[in-house]
Design a protein that fits this description.
The structure holds 3 protein chains of 3 kinds.
Chain A (H helix, E strand, L loop, with lengths): L16 H11 L6 H15 L4 E2 L6 H9 L13 E2 L7 E5 L7 H10 L5 E5 H6 L21 E3 L6 H16 L20
Parallel strand pairs in A: 1-2, 1-3, 3-4, 4-5
Helix pairs in contact in A: 2-6
Chain B lengths: L1 H26 L28 H25 L1 H28 L7
Chain C lengths: L2 H8 L4 E2 L6 E3 L2 H14 L2 E10 L2 E9 L6 E8 L6 E3 L8 H12 L2 E3 L39 E7 L5 E7 L6 E5 L11 E7 L2 E8 L7 H5 L4 H8 L7 H16 L5 H30 L3 H21 L8 E2 L2 E2 L7 H24 L2 H7 L7 H7 L4 H5 L6 H4 L20 H23 L20 E9 L2 E9 L7 E5 L3 H10 L5 H11 L3 H5 L1
Parallel strand pairs in C: 2-5, 6-7
Antiparallel strand pairs in C: 1-2, 3-4, 4-5, 8-9, 10-11, 11-12, 13-14, 15-16, 16-17
Helix pairs in contact in C: 6-7, 7-8, 7-14, 7-16, 8-9, 9-14, 14-16, 15-16
Classes of the chains: A alpha/beta, B mainly alpha, C alpha+beta.
Chain lengths: 195, 116, 535
């Protein structure tokens, strides 16, 4: 399989390589031709290096995200140049901070309003499993109850370097996707499945 | 010769725009759900009618902007060759500007430039 | 005449709590007349703390005078658990409008005469009242349907015949154009939803809907031990994380009668002031970001990173630091701490002029901030807007000056007061406070005494029975901790006075007649942090 390359970090130093290898094996069952797979690689390279996220910060992790966007941990050099305020213009949603029962429908609606292809990174303990608030009556115990998540970044809050690790994992995942045939032809939602 | 470059510029613009739209339609992803058609209001559903009475201030603002934008558009081509055209054109342009300045002064006096 | 005699004169059947703070317990019949008499001197309502003490439901009212800085607390309760009703005081202190809504939301007590008895944190179709002791934690599973927000609200009034009647009040009319400044918004400093009635560009009314980050911290604290509650305090107002922890530690230490070492006091004061610098730098960055300037945002964060480095060496965390504990601080200072702090202060003093050059003198910033969102001194006191907002309107409310704790009575610093009360004054108050913070640190940094950083406490910390409170000057205002203890190892009721809830309530008053762009500027200068409001 083609190995997703991240500049200056060798493939072996990432964890979760088995997940990516399995994903590629599933995708390659059908087989692709050489031209399309090179075009895939080219388009995926472009996509993964310019992922713009939706401004969605609920609590503490959002401050670390702002620090990530600031001058010291400059995320623009990774291509995460700006954050878009409208979900229709965003590529991914970085869920930063606890999601409560009141906020869950809002998150789901924003996720639905985003245009394909879209990704979700769950940042912080609260989004993975409820975090320090596991005994609360108003916290969603992990956002994968409501939306599908691509990368989980644990921490409370995770350091900006941990954010980068999560973002690089997402980039590797995108680089391995088959754009033609998979990402750009997701099934149409059945007509009766309306909110 | 100037016209050739102009034609090339127009054709390139048309081509780029069409290509962007067509390629996006061909290879872009397709996905439909009910929420994608909803208007975006920070994650909440909209409430109430959208056909409401708008303040006339918005209309005045738009009209004033339009008039002076068109004026600027007329001034740009003149400005590029102002030197060659000489004093006759200059007086013509000053006359043109004078009428519009009178209009601006009237709008200013009447308070159309403040938001009320 | 002492406070006790004064109260007994107005409410003859009042009793007083034996242990803990001085709290007058009055019946709900005499409560209203007592509060009317107290309002004349005590014009600042610090907080309304609802509680559920199994037999009775009630509320504690903490009052303070803005001129003499005396404090008094009044407690009242009702035995009716089916339909608990207490008289409202929102015509005396405007901030009670929103605090009583919180008590209604979490405990179910309705207030007679409050014009707006809606829930504030939980969904309008939530069943039950979480802070009650008999609340079933699984009774409200995740509900993904869209929440409908009513345009009307109920008010409970007392008719002439002595019966209670419910009256409908209108929040928004049928023809009003109402727009959501929704939960997901770049300029709301968190997840705050505001329904705004607009007339063209002009803001007519603001109705804030909080609760999108309500994590139920106060309820969780009732099942945690005291050291465990400290884990959650950092996560409320994360930009005053250490100051919040300081408040809880102060409250428990004072209740237990524990003296902490001098070294720990020095460390706490210095780290508090570093936290304040950190928070004001972020205030500056977010203010200019909201107004549209991206460059000064980087200035603020660049210097903030230096403070975070210093704190990270000692505490291990950048944002959530878990540093103070009951009895002192968790670990001793890093050996380079003093050197780095002194280097930072020299650097920051030299670079502060850049902030003023790029933003304060800018003609656009001045036009957008001067004269906008005026709040008078009486309005800020009635609304309970502490912190920089109150000081910008002339209200001297700095807890460090008037109710000193830690080492604040031993250092010399000015309390920054402006009188205009507009956005520009609120902004300048915080910029000048940064200089004062550095001045405080300079006085203390060379004189840290040797000693242990943490006093030995029992393994299980039990606070004696009674009602205790403590307050600190957090970066945004007065952060108070109110503790009702029954002698066990878990608090019976632990309430945090939010610095931001009165500020959000003040939006309606401050934004009357402004345009949308001004509304954003006012929200940014009021400087609230939403997880602190919602707890």
């Amino acid at each position: 399989m083609r190995e997703p390359t991240i500049k200056s970090i060798p493939y072996e130093e990432f964890t979760d390589n088995e997940y990516l290898e399995k994903m590629v094996a599933d995708l390659n069952e059908k087989g692709t031709n050489v031209i399309v797979s090179n075009l895939d690689a080219f388009i995926n390279w472009g996509r993964s290096n310019s992922l713009w996220s939706l401004t969605f910060g609920t609590s503490c992790c959002a401050i670390e995200f702002m620090a990530l966007g600031a001058a010291r941990y400059d995320m623009a050099r990774f291509g995460f140049e700006v954050t878009r305020n409208s979900p229709r213009q965003a590529d991914m949603i970085m869920v930063l901070g606890t999601i409560t029962h009141k906020m869950a429908p809002v998150l789901k609606r924003l996720y639905d309003q985003m245009a394909e292809p879209k990704y979700v990174i769950a940042i912080g303990g609260c989004t993975i499993s409820g975090g320090p608030f596991r005994s609360s009556y108003h916290v969603v115990m992990g956002i994968d109850e409501i939306i599908p998540v691509d990368v989980f970044v644990p921490g409370c809050p995770p350091r900006p370097e941990a954010f980068y690790y999560g973002m690089m994992q997402l980039q590797r995942k995108i680089k391995l996707e088959n754009f033609f045939g998979t990402v750009n032809r997701k099934e149409k939602e059945p007509e009766e499945d309306k909110e | 010769m100037n016209f050739m470059m102009f034609m090339v510029a127009i054709l390139a613009a048309l081509l780029l725009v069409t290509a962007a739209l067509v390629i996006a339609k061909l290879i872009g992803p397709r996905s439909f759900n009910a929420q994608k058609g909803e208007p975006y209001e920070c994650g909440m559903l909209t409430h109430g009618d959208t056909w409401v009475q708008f303040k006339v201030g918005y209309y005045l603002y738009a009209v004033l902007y339009l008039v002076f934008d068109v004026e600027a558009m007329f001034l740009f081509p003149w400005a590029t060759i102002a030197g060659e055209l000489g004093t006759a054109a200059l007086t013509g342009v000053i006359f043109f500007l004078g009428i519009l300045i009178l209009g601006l002064a009237y709008a200013w006096r009447k308070g159309a430039l403040e938001w009320k | 005449m002492s406070m006790k005699d004064l109260i007994l004169k107005i409410a003859p059947s009042a009793t007083f709590e034996e242990q803990g703070d001085f709290v007058a317990v009055v019946s709900k019949e005499e409560f209203r007349s007592l509060m009317e008499k107290l309002h004349a001197d005590y014009d600042y309502l610090r907080d309304v703390v609802g509680f559920d003490l199994v037999e009775s439901l009630g509320a504690l009212y903490y009052l303070e005078s803005s001129t003499t800085f005396e404090r008094v607390a009044v407690k009242t309760s009702t035995l009716d658990r089916e339909n608990p009703l207490l008289p409202s005081v929102c015509d005396l202190w405007k901030t009670a409008e929103i605090k009583e809504r919180e008590v209604y939301d979490l405990l179910g007590i309705r207030f007679i005469g409050n014009p707006d008895m809606r829930r504030i944190f939980l969904r309008e179709d939530w069943v039950g009242y979480p802070l009650r002791k008999d609340y079933d934690m699984d009774s409200n599973p995740l509900n993904m349907t869209n929440e409908q927000n009513a345009d009307t609200t109920t008010e409970v009034t007392l008719t002439a015949g002595g019966d209670f009647k419910e009256v409908q009040n209108q929040i928004f009319g049928k023809d009003d154009f109402v727009v959501n400044f929704g939960p997901q918004h770049p300029s709301t400093h968190g997840v705050l939803r505001m329904r705004v009635h607009l007339d063209g560009e002009e803001v007519k009314k603001v109705d804030p809907i909080c609760g999108y980050i309500h994590r139920g911290i106060e309820k969780m604290c009732e099942s945690l031990t005291y050291p465990q509650t400290l884990a959650l305090t950092d996560r409320m107002d994360y930009l005053s994380a250490n100051q919040n922890r300081h408040a809880v530690c102060l409250c428990v230490e004072q209740a237990m009668g524990l003296e902490i070492s001098e070294r720990a006091q020095y460390i706490r004061t210095i780290v508090d002031e570093l936290q304040r610098l950190n928070s004001h730098l972020l205030f500056f960055s977010c203010l200019v970001l909201d107004m549209g300037g991206l460059t000064p945002f980087f200035y603020g964060f660049r210097d903030r990173e230096m403070i975070l480095d210093i704190l990270e060496d000692t505490t291990g965390g950048r944002l959530i630091q878990n540093y103070y504990v009951i009895g002192g601080v968790q670990a001793d200072l890093h050996p380079d701490f003093q050197k780095k702090v002194k280097a930072f202060i020299v650097h920051f003093r030299g670079i502060l002029h850049e902030y003023h050059e790029i933003f304060t003198g800018n003609v656009i910033a001045r036009n957008r901030l001067i004269g906008i969102g005026k709040l008078t001194r009486e309005q800020t006191i009635a609304l309970g807007c502490t912190g920089g907002t109150g000081r910008a309107s002339g209200w001297a409310n700095d807890v460090r000056k008037h109710h000193p704790y830690a080492l604040y009575n031993k250092v010399e610093f000015k309390e920054i007061l402006h009188t205009e009360g507009d956005c520009y004054a609120r902004y300048m108050v915080r910029m000048e406070e940064m200089l004062e913070s550095m001045h405080i640190i300079e006085q203390l940094i060379d004189n840290i005494p040797e000693g242990e950083c943490k006093v030995k406490t029992k393994p299980i910390i039990k606070v004696p029975e009674g009602i205790y409170s403590a307050s600190v000057e957090a970066s945004r205002g007065e952060f108070g901790v109110f503790l009702v203890s029954d002698g066990g190892k878990n608090p019976a009721r632990l309430h945090f006075r939010s610095t931001g809830l009165p500020l959000v309530h003040a939006l309606d008053t401050a934004c009357a007649g402004s345009k949308i762009a001004d509304f954003i500027a006012i929200g940014a200068t009021l400087d609230y942090v939403i997880p602190d409001i919602d707890r």
